[in-house]
């Protein structure tokens, strides 16, 4: 498994979805009840801008509030394109060095950070697709990779409040199961 390539694919998939958001959809509700489409995309863009400084060894304190607030401005499509390219390029540039990144919960190998980002892009990509009425199908390989990576960590993330309670789902569809683990109802409707 090439984490660098999978990370780039997840980032690009999210960016493609964000580019398809129509002007009248930015205020639509999302499965993340605290965010509308604009806030969801802004959250992901903010995470993307954090990649380079963290990959270069900066601490959260050093970066500070640089990426707080509205990062989408008047041209969300351009903001998404710039942030996604920056995140993917920064991860590609620094992952071969295998640095540690300084996250809020401690020093973490960059490969683990890339997996966290990959999972976030994958799940929030589904959130965005569901909110904007797009095809909700997730990349099956990314679903499989995230499921295997996340399974041993699920309860720790839930206990930390990073994900909601599991949602009961019928059947054994891997995408639905992954969404349920992340507290999403695969049948969510606005």
What does this structure look like?
The chain has 190 residues and is mostly helical. The protein has one domain (3-181): dinb family like domain (Four Helix Bundle (Hemerythrin (Met), subunit A), Up-down Bundle), CATH 1.20.120. 56% of the residues lie in helices and 4% in strands. The protein contains 8 helices and 2 strands; from the N terminus they run ααααββαααα. The chain has a two-stranded antiparallel ribbon with strand order 1-2. Strand 1 and strand 2 (106-109) form a beta hairpin. Helix 1 (3-19) runs antiparallel to helix 4 (76-94), helix 1 (3-19) runs parallel beside helix 5 and helix 2 packs parallel to helix 4. The radius of gyration is 16 Å and the shape is globular. The termini are far apart. The model has no long low-confidence stretch (mean pLDDT 95).
Quick recap:
The protein is built from eight helices and two strands.
Based on DSSP secondary structure assignment, what is the total number of beta strands? Answer: 2
Summed up, the helix count is 8
| CATH architecture grouping | Up-down Bundle
Helices and strands, in order, run as HHHHEEHHHH
Give me some keywords for this one.
single chain, 190 residues, mainly alpha, Four Helix Bundle (Hemerythrin (Met), subunit A), two-stranded antiparallel ribbon
């Amino acid at each position: 498994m090439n984490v660098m390539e999978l990370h780039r694919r997840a980032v690009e998939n999210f960016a493609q979805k964000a580019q398809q958001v129509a002007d009248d959809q930015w205020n639509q509700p999302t499965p993340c009840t605290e965010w509308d489409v604009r806030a969801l995309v802004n959250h992901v863009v903010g995470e993307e801008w954090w990649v380079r400084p963290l990959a270069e060894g900066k601490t959260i304190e050093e970066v500070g509030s640089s990426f707080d607030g509205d990062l989408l401005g008047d041209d969300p499509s351009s903001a998404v394109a710039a942030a996604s390219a920056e995140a993917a390029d920064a991860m590609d540039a620094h992952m071969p060095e295998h640095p540690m990144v300084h996250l809020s919960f401690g020093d973490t190998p960059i490969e683990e950070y890339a997996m966290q980002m990959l999972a976030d892009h994958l799940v929030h990509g589904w959130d965005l697709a569901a909110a904007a009425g797009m095809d909700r199908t997730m990349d099956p390989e990314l679903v499989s990779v995230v499921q295997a990576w996340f399974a041993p960590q699920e309860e720790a993330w839930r206990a930390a409040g990073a994900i909601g309670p599991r949602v009961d789902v019928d059947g054994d569809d891997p995408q639905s199961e992954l969404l349920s683990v992340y507290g999403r109802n695969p049948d969510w409707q606005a």
